[in-house]
Amino acid sequence: MLRTGATRLALRSLTPAVRPTAKVARAVSAIQWTAHFNSATCKRPQLPMAQSKPIQTAILRRTLADKIDLEAEKKYAQEKLKPDPERVSATSSIHPFVGEVGGAPAAEQVDMMSGVKGDVDTIKSTFDLSAVPRQANILGLAGVLPYFATSMGTVLCAWEINHSNAGYGYLMSADTAETLLHILEPLQVGYGAVILSFLGAIHWGLEFAGYGGYHGYRRYAIGVVAPAVAWPTVLMPLEYALITQFCAFTMLYYIDTRATYRGWTPPWFAIYRFVLTFLVGAAIVVSLVGRGQIAHRVGRVPGAVDRIKELRDGAEDRLAEDEKAARAHDKAKAK
């Protein structure tokens, strides 16, 4: 088989040399990466490309490709390749293009599941409550049960209302489901306000005990702001109340995390608060989804603001009726 020198020169000048990685270099012999044609082309002087910068190397290669010695190429064109069985093996002309680590030992191969395993370990460590005291862990998780009970009750009532036939559902009638729904909604909002106030009061107890030092108004402010944000939600419509409490739980979790990093709380408090906030947030989202399914069929329960507005409008109407009656009495008296 003949191979012209022009093709060899073009391939050497235009194609960057393939460099094996460290792992492949240990597994594959140097014969796989160098070709010995036993011709004069192997004796050409080579420029020190490795010492040049990448841009300079590309320019030199392009220059060599443009300047071709035609006489030398004619000489190379007439040259025949001589067989060299001693340097030829079953793998001397094979390149593992399927994978660069094809010849690496099994112990050095890349673990393709390492990323997934790392994510699983991160999730496990995030929800790990082994450092939390047993009593606090049990009572804290039990405190989330009322939230889940009201959320699942909301979803059940919404499902009964949407799937009722002629006013009758599978477990209860549509009217009963709507009445139960109007009972569950204020219970969930009121319970959320209580929990938010309790979480803020924890920082007052830590300040009283001097845990992590005494920080004064900075730590007292947490216990003051929490109920100031929580209790106005009992006057809001359900959707706005739940969204406000969701944001309040998230913000209070962030504050508790920063307090843990500063040493104001026990080291396990940040993970403990994350798990509880995650569960409460999931319950709030479930309630919002269930309530949204029947927003067009069930009206909301009149809140305190609606009652105050009703009393004000009723007082104005009664005052107008009294004035009208007084004028009619005065006209009748004048006659």
TrEMBL record:
Transmembrane segments: 138-161, 189-210, 222-255, 267-290
Domain of life assignment: Eukaryota
Cell inner membrane listed as a keyword: no
Keywords linked to the UniProt accession: Membrane, Transmembrane, Transmembrane helix
Cross-referenced InterPro entries: DUF3429
Keyword Transmembrane helix in annotation: yes
Descriptive protein name: Mitochondrial inner membrane protein 1
